Amino acid sequence: MRQAVDGETAPEITDAVELIRSGLFTRATLSRVGEFVQRYGRMEQYRIEKPARWCPPGRPGKVLAMGRNYRAHVKEFDNRMPDSPVVFSKATSACIGSGEPIRIPQYAGRVDYEGEVAVVIGKTCSGVNPGEVREYIAGYTLINDVTARDMQRKAMGEGNPWFLAKSFDTFCPVGPVIVLADVFDWPPVIPIETRLNGELRQQSDTSHFIFSLDTIISYISRYITLEPGDLVATGTPEGVGPLQAGDIVEIYAPEIGCLCNPVISRE
Length: 267
What we know:
Helices cover 19% and strands 31% of the residues. The model is unreliable at 1-5 and 49-57 (pLDDT under 50). The protein has a seven-stranded mixed β-sheet. It folds into two domains: 4-40, no CATH class; 63-266, Fumarylacetoacetase-like, C-terminal domain (Fumarylacetoacetate hydrolase, domain 2). It contains six helices and 17 strands.
């Protein structure tokens, strides 16, 4: 919607990524939106045409993720403790929103859920020192880093990347909302839990990271320029397990809400 109100014309914003890239994902902007809704929400000529969504239609420019960033998760997979952040990527075409189905093809083998807190980058970030990281973060959301585990293990055993195992269509649920960074203290301590068919499977918080948030973002920015709207998933705690058709997987954080997705078979 693009309407003139009291002589002002607002830019048309169709999704959250566009809002961040435009520099409008701020407390001041959201306060003005709230005032607008209170003032004009009952008038027929002002209505919400479509709810704002993370994706689709919007997609982050990049989805980067951390492996082995909770000690208990490293131990449950009998992996070596990392000396530096383990960074990988997922295809942005894998992104879906809360409520959309995770589709598992028959040839995928074992497929696991991985509940994670994710950082949403707010402005261009390159070669940033750890002490500067906070000002580059727009907000936080949740991600399910769905993984074709058998394919990943085979790739790792052969010394190959595991990009395909992380990037099947629908293997990157994101949401349900992005919460402004200044809602949280710094560094943020964000509780996270994962439930499968209502049963608690993962429960931890971001204070248990091996590599802190400022270390993660600073490290990545040495090599890769992070841009507004990019997503950085921060790793999953212990309790990872398999998914199958008919399951409902829910990832929850108190200030962010519940990222909920059904699981179906893909023919």
